[in-house]
Amino acid sequence: MKKVVFYNPKDIRVEESPIPVPGYGEIVVRNKVALTCGTDVKTYMRGYPGDIPPYGFGHEASGIVHAVGKGVTRVKVGDRVVCHNSAPCQKCFYCKKGLHSMCDDILWNMGAFSQYQVIPQRIVEQNTFILPQGMSHETAALMEPLSCVTYGVESAGVKLGDTVVVNGAGPIGLMYVALLVKKGAYVIATDLSDVRLETAKKLGAAKAVNASGKDTVELVKALTPEGRGCDIAIEAAGYPEVWEKNIRMARKGGIVLLFGGTKAGTKLEADANLVHYSQLTLMGLYHTIPQYTMAAFEMLKNGVIKAEDFISKSYMLEQIEEAILEHSKGRCIKNKIILD
Questions:
Q1: Max Cα distance, the chain (Å)
Q2: For 42-67, what is each residue's pLDDT tens digit?
Q3: Residues 70 and 132 in one domain
Q4: pLDDT of 259
Q5: Residues 226-264: pLDDT tens digits?
Q6: Do 119 and 176 sit in the same domain of this protein?
Q7: Is the same domain home to 279 and 161?
Q8: Does 188 lie in the same domain as 319?
Q9: What is the pTM of this model?
Q10: Which residue of 123, 175, 222, 310 has the fewest C-beta atoms within 10 A of its own C-beta?
Q11: How many angstroms separate the CA atoms of 304 and 168, rounded?
Q12: Could you say which DSSP state residue 244 is in?
């Protein structure tokens, strides 16, 4: 089989290796498609904090069960499945508090850019789903990012009629737009890419603001009732300057969700008086939890998010670097890697 291995920033290689054999409780999935995302771009450019190369690359895929290990009863060979890229231990302090994304022993399973992939027992048991007839592998592969966005929307406590800004209209930001609109919010989207802003409007954003100018904060606030700012401000880009602008877009008593991951060692500068006297609630949010992985899968089954709105171009596995670089330019939403 062929798989992509990350060695160093800007050094990924397509290699051949034996098809894996599942151990107890594990399954092997023959991936049909995988999708690129912003995390893949950041990893390609600078590596991922805490991960020691070489390691498997990619984390959004869907395919067909190729083999099952002893003890597996939930799925069988031939089932069309989607498997999340993580699972909590369900035993530690944080899991018992319901904070599964903070799990002390969270299990990660990277390597979606491969023709065959082993799925560990914990993920098989907690976060593997069988696709119903009519659900495409492309749609199913959106489950991981959608689960993260679902976690964010629910954690921010969005209410009907809220005015919400989403800073960053990449795949994650656009999923925020789509879910917020369905929640009954008035959504303002900002980004540097007019292509992505057009998609935001297609998904229901009431206003789209190109953030290339210096007055993005003022432009956004001017679009809110009485110019007071947004009920909820969501950062989905992963850059400190956007984090800082995001804070300034919230109204007094507003909620600020800081979602996009930044480079290791990044410092945030915020106006302490603004945070204090405007009584802002600043929230960090990381990854997702099983509750919202299941919710994301159900929404995909029900057509809440459609693959054609998010997948731009198709590439073969050997073209992975081209697909990642094209994604980084902001002229597409996600790219599909064909693994057959």
A1: 63
A2: 999 988 877 889 999 999 999 999 99
A3: yes
A4: 95
A5: 999 999 999 999 999 999 999 999 999 999 999 998 888
A6: no
A7: yes
A8: no
A9: 0.95
A10: 222
A11: 21
A12: H
